[in-house]
Amino acid sequence: MISSDSEEELYTERTALMSANSSAMPSYQERDGTPGSANVQSNWRRLAASQPANPAERSSGTESGPASRDAGGEGEEEEEEELILKYGAKHVIMLFVPVTLCMAVVVVTIKSVSFYTQKDGQLIYTPFTEDTDSVGQRILNSILNTLIMISVIVVMTIILVLLYKYRCYKFIHGWLILSSLLLLFLFTYIYLGEVFKTYNVAMDYPTLILIIWNFGAVGMVCIHWKGPLQLQQAYLIMISALMALVFIKYLPEWSAWVILGTISIYDLIAVLCPKGPLRMLVETAQERNEPIFPALIYSSTMVWLVTMTKRSVDPGEPLNYTCNADNYRDLEIEANHHVAEGLDNVADLPPTQIQGVRQSAAGVEELEEEKGVKLGLGDFIFYSVLVGKAAAGASGDWNTTLACFIAILIGLCLTLLLLAVFKKALPALPISITFGLVFYFSTDNLVRPFMDTLAFHQFYI
Amino acid sequence: MSAAVFFGCTFIAFGPAFGLLLFTVAGDPLRVIILVAGSFFWLVSLLFSSLLWFVAVQLGNKANAGVQHGLLMMGAGASVLLQEAFRFAYYKLLKKADQGLAAMSEDGRSPISIGQMAYVSGLAFGVASGAFSVINVLSDSLGPGVVGIHGDSPYFFLTSAFLTMAVVLLHTSWGVVFFDACEKRRWLSLMMVIVTHLLTSGLTFLNPRYEWSLPLIYGLTIATGGWAFLTAGGSVRNVWRCVTCSRLTPTFWSIQLCSHQLRIDGQSQHSQPLGSDLLAFSPLPPPPPPPHTHTHTHTHTGHWCPAPRRTRGEHKDSDCNYLLHVSDWVFVVKQTAEGPR
């Protein structure tokens, strides 16, 4: 069947939730021309996180989470925590939306395209069949499948970490590009083919080639080089959904559940243990001030900076500049709405002077660095696998799907809360997958009969 | 049964909820989180009540239909009580979170009020309850079939949709009233919420005698909605003002120290803006003073100035702010809707 080692590493390194790196960030006050003003502004709503003094350092900021640091002024701790929470809520939503979209795509596909619920064999990573006579044998087979799958993942992760440590970047990039090619071209082709079959759409090969070529080429450019942030996010969601659909199709029933449980335990170990491969990957990347590979991480927002203008009324300096630290991602800056936000407290000045003064005022007041939270693509994939399996399950019950969906979102929320507290890379799988599994099995076995009986009699609770 | 029935019933059931979500919840991240967490709490309550029912069914006589019916009613009643218990638990959690948010914020105020949290949590419970009740029915309505071919009511889908809409609105109202009752320790209101919830659930047991259940439930919905409206501080006057689109009369004036105005070469230049602490609040709504009117003296020390004395160089911008120039200082006098807390 479809077998490629490239598809393995796609989800090995993606199972981490990246967060702030507070060590490399110089303080806000360093960039401030007049330190005294920091105290004066301590009462103002400071949206600022600290700003690195140079673009090279800012690359480490790309991995920063919602934590913010600011220096100077009393009440720093409260401000910092309030800013954490303020940004925390926004960042939670910034992750809710793509996770929901990915799950929605997977669920809609599962429910409509029957190809992904048909049994067409298994991957070579799960060689043991589940069509056995006894329950015990089936359990044993699924455990063996899980062991093989997890060991493949562990080996792949370790190989990747070693390659990264010994700076074999070309190899890694080639590997990633190969896997992206596979996803964007081959899997998309199969997906489109099945969708067309389901809806009986007449399609000819030239048109299909044109569509697939454009889709795939733009995807490669967006993911591996530069592109609009939202387009890149959309592509990452799509490839996660495609990968999840492949898993849903080719993983046998019980093996899938055991794999989900085991991989969340592995994620916990890999990210938190000092010698865990994912943790080493993250730390090495942070040491070298490099971003983790593109195509492995979903970033929720662009990182941009507002320059500090001088105190005097001099609108000469531009209010923002294009950040260029991400050598793989060219992010356009759109600062206007953020600047506008910061101007609430600025006095209404004489109109003639508004432009310049606003700029200086904004520069003084607002040193804003919009930081995002990063979520590994493996997390997207496994969340979607869980919800997709719930949707594809034998009962095909929507209550189960909804329950798993809510459980995963709550798990993500809790993980982000922990992220705001601990400020380091955390595994995003364990809490969500645990909640998801608990709610899947309990909803499927307990809630479903109850709600079905109630709905049958049209009783409402 | 087809797409028409599916879309019609979906929009009936979730139209109001969708509108409420879109206009009041979707814009604010904190409210979205409260919504999702509220759904989670409702889900957990449903889990426990299903467990209870499941155990009871396993222990009971599976063959006897009457016993099963009784157990179902018992399960529904227990579910209602558990839902209200979890609503109380959610109230406690939100109170704690509110205190945390207030403690962490700059000015000691939480970014969201307990009333708003009550509304969002009620909506969360409603959406979760409605979704879990009706979504399987809706997905069945998409497929082929004839409703009521064995003698049941042909209006099954339509009435399910209407009942779901009522449940969503009811939960929203119950949320508001419940939280308010917990805040003000009005245990009678709390009891009334639980009783009306049990009553609503009990009325659905009259189905399929829709001529009894539907009007009564809708009457209950409207009554509870009115009760929640009054609890949240609404009144006929508010409604009238909203309907006639009259401008909100500002009731407070706030004075902020804006900047230190420097005079350089005859042209005023502003130095950096200073802290914009609110210095004074007016409890009275003064009418906007006509220009060049010196009515009262004012002080600099943060006392209430009924009408700002404006020297030359007053500026009025579109936002109904006034600039008050006093020697070298510039004050911004704003009309605000909220006073000091």
Overview of the molecule:
Chain A is globular, with a radius of gyration of 24 Å. In chain A, helix 1 crosses helix 7, helix 7 runs antiparallel to helix 8 and helix 14 runs antiparallel to helix 15. Chain A contains 16 helices and five strands. Chain A is mainly alpha-helical and 461 residues long. Chain B is 58% helix and 11% strand. Chain B is built from eight helices and five strands. In chain B, strands 1, 2, 3, 4 and 5 form a five-stranded antiparallel sheet that branches. In chain B, strand 4 and strand 5 form a beta hairpin. At the A-B interface, helix 5, helix 13, helix 15 and helix 16 of A face helix 2, helix 3, helix 4, helix 5 and helix 6 of B.
Chain-wise SSE layout:
The complex is a heterodimer of chains A (461) and B (341).
Chain A: H1 5-12, E1 17-18, H2 28-31, H3 36-40, H4 55-61, H5 76-112, H6 135-165, H7 169-199, H8 205-224, H9 229-250, H10 253-272, H11 277-287, E2 297-299, E3 305-306, E4 320-321, H12 336-342, H13 351-365, E5 374-376, H14 377-392, H15 398-422, H16 429-457
Antiparallel strand pairs in A: 1-5, 2-5, 3-4
Helix pairs in contact in A: 1-6, 1-7, 5-9, 5-14, 5-15, 6-10, 6-11, 7-8, 7-9, 9-14, 10-11, 10-14, 10-16, 14-15, 14-16, 15-16
Chain B: H1 3-25, H2 29-59, H3 65-104, H4 114-141, H5 156-184, H6 187-204, H7 210-231, H8 236-243, E1 252-264, E2 267-273, E3 278-281, E4 322-326, E5 329-336
Antiparallel strand pairs in B: 1-2, 1-3, 1-5, 4-5
Q: Report the C-alpha radius of gyration of chain A, rounded.
A: 24 Å
Average pLDDT of chain A, rounded to a whole number, is: 74
Distance between the termini of chain B: 56 Å
Instruction: Give, in spatial order, the strands making up the sheet with the most strands of chain A.
Output: 1-5-2
Oligomer: heterodimer
Largest sheet of chain A: 3 strands, antiparallel
Along the chain, the helix and strand elements of chain A come as HEHHHHHHHHHHEEEHHEHHH
